[in-house]
Amino acid sequence: MVQALAHVKPLRNFFLRQSHRNLYVEISKRKKRKKNLHDKDKKNKAPQRLSNLVLAFGELIRKIWSNRRLKHSVDPQRLVQEISVASQKRFGARRAEMGEQLAWFLHQLHVGLGGTSKRSSIVHEIFQGDISVTTRSRKVIESDKKQEDTDDRLGSDDEEDEDVDERNKTENPHATIIEEKTVDTRYLQLTLEIPEKPLFKDDDGGLVIPQEPLVNVLRKFDGVTFSDALNGSTRRYKLKRLPPYLILHLQRFTSNRYTREKNPTIVAFPVKNFDLSSYVEKKREQPPPPTKAEIEQMSVSELKKTLQKYNHDDLGRNVVEKDELITIVTDFCVKSLPDLLAHKYNLVANITHASNDNNRGEGDPLEDGSYKCHVQHQSQWYEMQDLHVQETMPQLIGLSESYVLIFERKGGKLS
């Protein structure tokens, strides 16, 4: 988990800029319109002290990326202790499900950095996206005992209708209607259920592990398919906004009161140019990006507004010359912007859970297996397990028992 998060560039750079002397974080308030004259006398909130978990994680990140260390290994003991204390020994020394631990850890980082449900942090800026959830449920309603505006005279047609209604009420005293409710919410990671597939044996007696493409597993978030929920209702998910870094949690383990089972199905996915455009809600009447000829006719203020429109105003923040600014905007609109609008992602880290073939089907599959992490440094992919590091090929990454995937949006961020 630490190796995967250490290769998320914005998160890594945030903690590299910090120091062990930085024990507090400034709480920035949102700018609001003043309601009365007394609001201007209010003081800003005092800096908040960083949590021990944040301090331990920041120290470990700086040690991992330090070029002045004599030892080639780093001891994560302090972070393990802080995780154990903060989680009341739920996580830490014992092996836990990585998807649940990562979700808990990101929330603790957000809170430890001064974030709340209304105040953002570096964690939410990197991993948070928007999603629309439609819940469809059946609601039972009682039939009315009497209908209004009926003719109760003897021999009338309404008298016969009342007899039919009474018989229907006796057979079906309660009627049901389908009720839909849509709520917009946010997420830090998307949890995907892997379909169950049977295992077969080959000619040599070994097990043949089935495969499933990631696009099939992502049907849960296509905005059309309804999936079952715990309370008997069904839900439909539609992604409204994708974050700069997308975390996918492939739910491999299912537990009950007695046992825990693992789904070993291999989920195949692309390492580069993973297109998620079909899963994101399309904005109405979105104007096309400016062409090279249109950029050359823009003024300095219009050039900076173009970068600001796509949340890349930092590219031209310290630029003074117009010709240099035109070059920057042209390169951004030609090279990076098409990938941003297409919602294409590249893999940054892949956490896998390798099963123990000798104990397959016996004991706890979570405890018997082991975690590995695939990360890319420069142009080479590496496979890491504790102190063991070896080179690997990107073609083999998509064929492993992936558990947690972290993708990076091509070209930067876009909201």
Structure description:
The protein has 415 residues and is an alpha+beta fold. 29% of the residues lie in helices and 27% in strands. The protein contains 13 helices and 20 strands. The protein has helices spanning 2-6, 9-16, 52-64, 77-86, 98-112, 122-127, 157-171, 214-217, 292-296, 300-309, 322-342, 365-368, 394-397, and strands spanning 24-25, 48-49, 129-142, 174-187, 190-193, 200-201, 207-208, 211-213, 222-228, 234-241, 245-251, 253-255, 260-262, 266-268, 274-275, 344-354, 370-377, 380-385, 388-392, 402-409. The strands form 6 sheets. Strands 5, 11, 15, 16, 17, 18, 19 and 20 form an 8-stranded mixed β-sheet that branches. Mean pLDDT is 80; it is low at 30-35 and 37-42.
How widely separated are the two ends? Answer: 26 Å
How much is the radius of gyration in Å?
28 Å
Number of strands: 20
Low-confidence stretches: 30-35, 37-42
Coarse morphology = globular
Average pLDDT score:
80
Largest sheet: 8 strands, mixed
| Proportion of residues in β-strands | 25-35%
DSSP summary: helix tally: 13
Helical percentage: 25-40%
Give me the secondary-structure category: alpha+beta
Can you give keywords for this protein?
alpha+beta, eight-stranded mixed sheet, four-stranded antiparallel sheet, globular
Condensed summary:
The chain has 415 residues and is α+β, with helices and mostly antiparallel strands.
What's the SSE blueprint?
Blueprint: H1 2-6, H2 9-16, E1 24-25, E2 48-49, H3 52-64, H4 77-86, H5 98-112, H6 122-127, E3 129-142, H7 157-171, E4 174-187, E5 190-193, E6 200-201, E7 207-208, E8 211-213, H8 214-217, E9 222-228, E10 234-241, E11 245-251, E12 253-255, E13 260-262, E14 266-268, E15 274-275, H9 292-296, H10 300-309, H11 322-342, E16 344-354, H12 365-368, E17 370-377, E18 380-385, E19 388-392, H13 394-397, E20 402-409
Helix pairs in contact: 3-4, 10-11
